[in-house]
Design brief:
With 252 residues, the chain is mainly α. It has helices at residues 17-39, 47-69, 71-74, 91-109, 115-136, 167-185, 194-213, 221-251, and strands at residues 7-10, 13-16.
């Protein structure tokens, strides 16, 4: 398959396809999160404002992490530090800043609701939107493929020679499957925190395996950090599951 155009023009304006895709993904996440919170009876008086702040903080974190892991390049091109239109975002960097902020501000943003209940309501949104973002982001950008492959399902990506493993499609499918499983579990009477723990563990494991087998495999700092952070997510999920179980037993 030939690569999808990574840019398109509307009159004098130039648009990057992946940027439009990520913007649409953000709108989907915002709409879906609002519906999930409303369905669970979780009040969010200033939802759009608060989530917009999270998006901004995540964007900053994603850019900082990318620059840090590619400092040898940016140290010689300081003008590129803020050139987001040239690409360069780290998903884990976004999580590293946005998640602590959300946890800290949760009592103010979602008054009268435990952090675990909020996390359970939003966990399928985060994972599912992440999956859509892989399909509408990296799949449509320069250099979005994985290793070279001779398989019939290999895809051609702009900026890369030869057919490549369609990593964004694989990761998108994984994330959407995880979101579906979490949504199915949501119909059961589970202690607060369980859904979030399942999402964290499954997503962390998939991301580590993808990095090892489909991408860099720890061969560079960015790849190594992805693997380490993915395993940290799995450990965090185990701790969350254990504490949620303990709380459930104490409340009986």
């Amino acid at each position: 398959m030939r690569p999808i155009p990574v840019v398109f023009h509307l009159g004098p304006l130039t648009f990057h396809t992946y940027g439009v895709g990520l913007a649409l993904t953000a709108l989907l996440a915002l709409w879906w999160a609002d519906r999930r919170l409303s369905r669970h009876g979780i009040a969010a008086p200033h939802f759009a404002r608060d989530v917009s702040l999270l998006f901004l903080v995540a964007l900053i974190g994603a850019r900082l992490a990318h620059v840090a892991t590619n400092w040898s390049t940016y140290s010689h091109q300081p003008a590129e530090l803020i050139a987001l239109w040239h690409g360069g975002l780290s998903s884990y960097g976004g999580l590293a800043l946005a998640v602590p902020l959300a946890v800290w501000r949760a009592p103010t943003w979602w008054p009268g609701t435990s952090r675990r209940r909020v996390a359970d309501a939003l966990s399928p949104v985060i994972v599912g939107s992440w999956g859509v973002g892989r399909l509408l982001g990296p799949q449509l950008m320069v250099g979005g493929g994985g290793h070279v492959t001779s398989a019939w399902w290999g895809m051609h990506y702009a900026g890369q020679m030869g057919a490549r493993v369609p990593v964004p499609l694989i990761q998108g499918a994984e994330d959407l499957l995880i979101a579906w499983v979490v949504l199915r579990l949501a119909s059961r009477d589970l202690p607060a925190g369980y859904l979030t723990a399942v999402a964290m563990a499954a997503w962390g494991l998939c991301r580590a395996v993808d990095e090892l087998w489909l991408l860099g495999g720890g061969g560079n700092l960015g790849s190594l950090l992805v693997i380490v952070n993915s395993l940290v997510l799995v450990v965090g999920a185990a701790l969350l599951l254990a504490t949620s179980e303990r709380r459930a037993k104490l409340s009986e």
